[in-house]
Amino acid sequence: MLPNCFLTECNNFLELYLIVCESVTAKMHPVNESAAELTSLLTSAVFQDVHVMIFIGFGFLMTFLKRYGFSSVGINLLLAAFGLQWGLLMQGVWHLVDGKIKINIFKIINADFSTATVLISFGAVLGKTSPVQLLIMTILEITIFSINEHLVATVLEANDVGASMIIHAYGAYFGLAVARVLYRPGLRNGHENEGSVYHSDLFAMIGTVFLWMFWPSFNSAIADPGLTQLTAVINTYLSLAACVLSAYAISSLVEHKGKLDMVHIQNATLAGGVAVGTCADMNIGPFGAMLIGLVAGIISTLGFKFLSPILASSVGIQDTCGVHNLHGMPGILGGLAGIVAVSLGKKEGGDPVMQAAALASSLGFALVGGAVTGFIMKLPFWGQPPDQNCYDDSLYWEVPEEEDENEESLAHADHSKNKAEV
Questions:
Q1: Which of 50, 96, 117, 153 is least buried, going by the fewest C-beta atoms within 10 A?
Q2: What count of other Cβ atoms lies within 10 Å of the Cβ of residue 74?
Q3: Do residues 107 and 88 make contact, with C-beta atoms less than 8 angstroms apart?
Q4: How far is 335 from 170, CA to CA, in rounded Å?
Q5: Residue ranges of the Ammonium transporter AmtB-like domain (predicted)?
Q6: Is 319 helix (H, G, I), strand (E, B) or coil?
Q7: 17 to each of 12, 20, 25, 323, 355, how far by Cα in Å?
Q8: What is the pLDDT of residues 18-45, one digit of tens each?
């Protein structure tokens, strides 16, 4: 038998716990929320898919650098966790209810969306910035994003359900503007740690596969439930599939002896999901979706092969992950596809002029906001790493010593040699 005092304490604790839970539930659930929205298993599943993309997909996609894997995944986690909180606050300011920010499943999905813009920009400056600089970028980029998102969705009433314009194009060109301002002449000829190794490319492919599988959820997350949401899923599904084929084909054509380039496969195979985003919920048909994906795969692969070196050598944009090819150009393609689709009457109530204005707004906010943010990040007290320490985890992380790795390799080699002699 347990002492009565212990049972009494347990009972009191249980009552207190139930009171706290009831209080938190009452605060978190908006009073006017429909029961269908609160209990929708589909919406919760879509949120989880988007969440996986943010924390695993984006994080592992950037692990291709041979000495920067800890930072790719670890700083991605830091920026995403911080960004979604800031995104909830910034986007909530535009949608106050009785002077309060109400939180529901759609609000946290949109918070993840706002974080995606930062992670895209992170790819452009990967390995060349400090965590403090990146946190500053997160604050400023999400703040500007929330203004542009409100302008596009509420004022212009443009259609961008999969966010080709307001997330992908915006995030890419914001990051490129930052990268241009933070240009490093010392890295003009590359860096010894800038490349990949066999296992780092394999880890990056994990990110690719996660993003590829869950992209239909990303593009349909905020679509109207029912047929419209199903349309967004199917269009994204078909666009991604067609994109993979064109990316493989073009990579084989432009590479030596018809071989495939892992950089193309890791990135260009995702461009179809980016490009179809704006018109994902429109009645563009299977052919339209596949055509968008096909073109996206082609321009993305060609961009990695030919355009990235030109941007680095002639324009001074050192785009580490090639976000211009994966998110920038496909994002613009998506915006243009949306203008054409609306002009053809594929979206009821759509206005092609507003679609064009939304694309221009996203690019304008990205370039100007990114440039201003870059100058702020360039201030000397944010701890920007020196050129020789770029793309190196050891500057910010405890990593296994290289000497220990060499000793283990030598020991293994000696063991193998002795075994062979025996």
A1: 96
A2: 15
A3: yes
A4: 11
A5: 43-394
A6: coil
A7: 9, 5, 12, 47, 50
A8: 333 333 333 434 434 454 554 466 788 9
